[in-house]
Design brief:
The radius of gyration is 21 Å and the shape is globular. The chain is mostly helical and 311 residues long. The N and C termini lie far apart (46 Å). Helix 2 runs antiparallel to helix 4 and helix 6 runs parallel beside helix 8. Helices cover 64% and strands 2% of the residues. The protein binds 3-hydroxybutanoyl-coenzyme A. The site of 3-hydroxybutanoyl-coenzyme A has 30 residues, from helix 2, helix 4, helix 6 and helix 9.
Length: 311
């Protein structure tokens, strides 16, 4: 891996011109994009599992249809992002193998269980809400295929966030038991959602280079703060409390102050010791094994097509 200067790369970055697959680029730029985009794709695919758990148990046909559409969207986002990563010269098989052997990461948030129907609303509202905060700036990422993929992904994420909030509004208008169910889910998801944005900037391995190369437009902490500032008023409208006694408006800063994040929990989950890591990986490995015959059939079909004489 060499970092020899690449003709035109720095000039294009400086002029905010997108870097395209055929452009010269430093190996380290290519490498960190393959890392981030493939892990983003893994997150989308694994992210289908927590919500998929409730498709057969949705309370109405309307909610079932909405949840089906959302989970299907996440699968599409994963495929979109794998395709964007492939433009950097990595194969789908290589990326999937890295997920299944545990050498690649996916977002920590998907290692938590979905214990009640309210979780589905809270995931839409908070997890997809955090995803939007993190992903809208990626529409301006310096790497063309990633930025363009994110435009469509973000449009669909907005639907995901709205349907989640709408679900919770309906429940908060319901019985005391339904209201309590929502509050209990918010209490479980709030802190893991703040962890989604990654370590504090001073502990972020990639922040510096990702900002220098225009992959990241804002730091982890900036986006986390933006999310908190936007979400607290939504929680007030919804009528839920957020489980942080230190959460309060700081007029001097013009932002909400909030409590300390449990980074021990974060790193334990990232290392594979979260509540559902084993279950999620087992499900992905089984799905991959069950799909082997489809991949084999597609391979043989493609070979036959190539071998068939063109008239
Ligand atoms: N879960 C797991 N690993 C995480 C993490 C998280 N929430 N946050 C950070 N990490 C990892 C990083 O991947 C990195 O490890 P690596 O070198 O092995 O890749 C390490 O912790 C240090 O973190 P950094 O801050 O230095 O890493 P990044 O600069 O890559 O920042 C990020 C992390 C903010 C997640 C960034 O990678 C990013 O913006 N990725 C694209 C968006 C994304 O992947 N979102 C995940 C959720 S997808 C989703 O929500 C789908 C929606 O439909 C619900």
């Amino acid at each position: 891996v060499t970092d020899a200067p690449c003709a035109g790369f720095d000039e294009k970055l400086a002029a905010d011109i997108k870097i395209e697959p055929s452009d010269p680029m430093p190996d380290a730029y290519r490498k960190t994009l393959i890392r981030q985009i493939s892990q983003h794709a893994h997150s989308e695919i694994v992210g289908m599992l927590p919500e998929g758990n409730w498709i057969t148990r949705a309370p109405t046909l309307k909610r079932k249809a909405i949840l089906l559409a959302k989970v299907q969207d996440e699968g599409g986002h994963g495929l979109y992002l794998y395709a964007a990563a492939e433009t950097l010269g990595v194969s789908r098989d290589t990326m999937v193998a890295a997920l299944l052997d545990g050498s690649a990461k996916y977002s920590s948030i998907f290692n938590y269980p979905t214990l009640s129907w309210a979780d589905i609303g809270v995931i839409g509202w908070l997890v997809d809400g955090a995803a939007i905060t993190n992903q809208v700036p990626l529409c301006r990422c310096s790497y063309g295929p990633y930025a363009r993929a994110m435009v469509r992904v973000c449009k669909e994420e907005s639907f995901h966030q709205r349907q989640g909030y709408d679900l919770l509004v309906a429940m908060m208008k319901g019985s005391p038991a339904q209201r309590a169910m929502v509050q209990e889910a918010v209490d479980r998801w709030w802190w893991p959602v703040l962890m989604m944005f990654g370590p504090h900037d001073q502990d972020s391995v990639h922040n510096g280079t990702s900002m220098k190369w225009g992959i990241k437009r804002f730091s982890n902490d900036d986006l986390r703060q933006k999310f908190v500032d936007a979400t607290v008023p939504q929680a007030e409208v919804l009528g839920v409390t957020l489980p942080d006694p230190d959460l309060k408006w700081n007029a001097e800063r013009g932002h909400y102050d909030f409590g300390a994040i449990d980074w021990e929990e974060f790193w334990q989950v990232v290392k594979g010791n979260g509540p559902c890591n084993r279950e999620r990986m087992a499900a992905r490995i089984k799905a991959h094994e069950d799909g082997a015959w489809v991949r084999e059939a597609a391979r043989v079909h493609a070979e036959k097509k190539i071998a068939r004489p063109t008239h």
